[in-house]
Amino acid sequence: MKTIIIDDERLAREELKNLLSEFPELEIIGECANGKEGIENINKLKPDLIFLDIQMPEINGFEMLEHLDHVPMVIFVTAYDEFAIKAFEVNALDYLLKPVDPNRLKETINKIKTDIEPGNSASIEKLGENDRIFIKDGEKCWFVDLKDIRMFESEGNYVKVHFDRFRPLILRSLNSLEEKLDEKLFFRANRKYIINLKKISNIENWFNGGLQVELNEGEKVEISRRQAIKFKDKMSI
Prior knowledge:
Layout: E1 2-6, H1 10-20, E2 27-32, H2 35-45, E3 49-52, H3 61-66, E4 73-78, H4 84-89, E5 94-97, H5 102-113, E6 132-137, E7 140-145, E8 149-155, E9 158-163, E10 169-170, H6 174-180, E11 186-188, E12 193-196, E13 200-205, E14 211-215, E15 220-223, H7 225-235
Parallel strand pairs: 1-2, 1-3, 3-4, 4-5
Antiparallel strand pairs: 6-7, 8-9, 8-12, 9-10, 11-12, 13-14, 14-15
């Protein structure tokens, strides 16, 4: 699993690298001293996982994530526990306090192993529009045709599935879900949404070179500037 460490403290990076050496499944492909370096290296090296400090100069960890359209799996490593709730709101896998407890780190790595590793995406069988998926939210259950789902919306550690009048939550990251979806049917609009291309009823230009699409039930979703370039290339003839 390709991994990048982003922390403005050199000693903190060294300590974490030392702890991570116990996990051969993690390949440290880079380390960054600030958020700007983090953005550049994530776009260039496309890691599966990042260990991210929150309080850094110029751009903090949360702000750094806002500049990414495709966010890898995120584990926050910080000396402050007051950011925990916000960390999970941005879909972080876990939140580790400094100094990092080796046993707590081991629990986190084991948790990652239970999810789909993006690096293995070539072996993942894609779900097509004729496939059906089972959804359970509390006591309610649905068996839904994938083609009937208008969009998937990230909600912290969960994904909200929009179909008919229902909005059930499933315990899954948007990134891991994207790995399984057929890109001919579903498109990653931004960090928070994946939309069904066949459910788009209207498109208009939006701020900063982005687009805004309206789905056939009236929901409006912004396609970020970077994703708008991919969308136009994908949908043009």
